[in-house]
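Researcher: We're teaching a course module on how sequence relates to structure. For the next exercise, students receive a sequence and then see the predicted structure as tokens, so they can try to spot secondary structure elements on their own. Here is the exercise chain.
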Amino acid sequence: MQVSPPQFSFLRSLLKKKTGVVIDDSKHYLVVARLLPIVKKRKLPSLDTLIDRVRTAGDSALEQDVLNAMMTHETSFFRDRSPFETLKNLIPEYVSKRAATKQLTIWSAACSTGQEPYSIALLLNEHFRDLVTTWRIRIIATDISDVVLTRCREGIYSEIEIVRGLPRSLLTKYFTAFQGKWSIAQSCRRLVEFRQLNLTGQWPVMPPCDIIFLRNVLLYFDEQTRGDILKRMQKALRPDGSLFLGGAETMLGINAHYERLAGEGCSFYRPTP
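Model: And here is the predicted structure for the students to work with:
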């Protein structure tokens, strides 16, 4: 089953307009793989029929299903490790700087199915237990997809999702077996707030952030959109805040108003005046 060039072009435009995500001409296979389940579920004759209904029927629910299907939700617990080791080393610095208020706010943007914000919660519980019990810790996790946010709030993961990055010691300490899957502990759940947010749309009011994880998402946008998001992130960060990008992402040639600092096997960024 294939997508005709006109329908592919429409889908590309819709995806860019609604989410900022850019797909090139080589991604026909991706469209087929991600939209075919919707075609089968709705018993439609073709992918072109599906896209035509999105174009002409004014079915907002179907449009949202298509957009959700086209989002990339690749993630895992403690993905790439280095940013979390760097975060562990940064926390004492912020403990000292925020001693007067005893508040710490961390934003996990484009959080997908929740492994990243829950990894931060696990790290804090494991290494900074006094902080978790005596400070106001907020991990604000956002994503464009209401479907993945529902999964986040459930906090339940399959065996395959668990073995991808989660140390066995943390599994036995912070998860409970639940109907053949694993449910994360309340000590982690209570630290995380999930909100729907489109990085290229109107943002809800956000508290000033001490640390932002914006990892492995900018690479799906064009350069202009990346620059716009980084500019907005600078406003969301406190002046001494820290921003983490993905290992394959850079600000080079996009935004010169951040200072690049060395972490544990990775880099992070701080706003410059």
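Model: If you want an answer key for the exercise: DSSP finds twelve helices and ten strands in the chain. The mean pLDDT is 94.
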